[in-house]
Amino acid sequence: MAPQANDLQKYNPSIIFRTLATLCIACIQTVGTRSVLNTPSSVLNLPTIPDKVTPMLPETLQLSDENLSLLQDNENDPETKAGLFQGDMALNDEVYNYWRVGLRWDVFPEKLWKNRTVPYVISPLYDTESYITIYKAISTINFMTCVKFVPWDGKAKDYLLIWPIKYPAGCWSYVGRYGGPQIVSLEPPDINSDNCIGSEGRPMHELLHALGLFHEQSRSDRDKFVKINLDNIIPAFKNNFNKQSLKNTTYKFEYDYDSIMHYGPYFFSADKSKPTITPKHAASRLGQRKMLSKTDCLKVNDLYGCLGKSPLYRRKYYTLCNYLGL
Ligand SMILES: [Zn+2]
Asked: How close is the Cα of 70 to the center of ligand 1, in Å?
């Protein structure tokens, strides 16, 4: 008997691959989560993290208390709450003057994580559910890219502290490696909102900033793909929608509506019923926070030199990105 469409679908190699890979990630996540949960972070000598920290902000972007308070209400996206550069990125003046869609390693070679390895600590202040969500985000990036997040051994000088910072609250991160303990702020769920840990998406977004990625809609060619509705942006935050010159846009990848690094349509909107960004292609959606897109995945592998490393590596990461990326 000729095979039915359903049978063909059942044996489609790409579906089989995707299923196996998903099972594999789930397996690594379960085993890994168990082993990490069995390692009490109290045995590590963690630095004291105050409730209030002052992430770097370029001088020209300092906000008044009044404008900052505009961002704090719960209807706002948690990625816009901290009032940092473009909402969620801590930058000093030096980097601000050279910022790119992705960090340029020729300008800032020291900001690349050495040996593609990122030691991390997840704060013991998170409840188990949040802890597992953050851990799943880390495992997914570890599986899809050649960058490896590893539990901090208490000795490495540079590492990420994934922490529920109270002020500025929200989801925010530095861009690239800054040296020493480096905060990634993820506000846990409360009665009003999931904040940054409703799913793995927002943790993945902030972790990609920590690896050196910026926002997709800041590319020099973005006006061909999205319309910025300046009239509906809260005036103090219009510069969050600046774009870069062509010279400063170093990526070779196509504009990516599906990027986990793209702003959502209502970020910084004065009238919440109207978008601040609209895609120019009707079928496109913006601001997904579910999974790395194919291109996000390739970008990370490219930034960390894994697509040109060897034909085997190249094939491995192209395959993983193509099958598992959104
Ligand atoms: Zn961001």
From this structure: 18
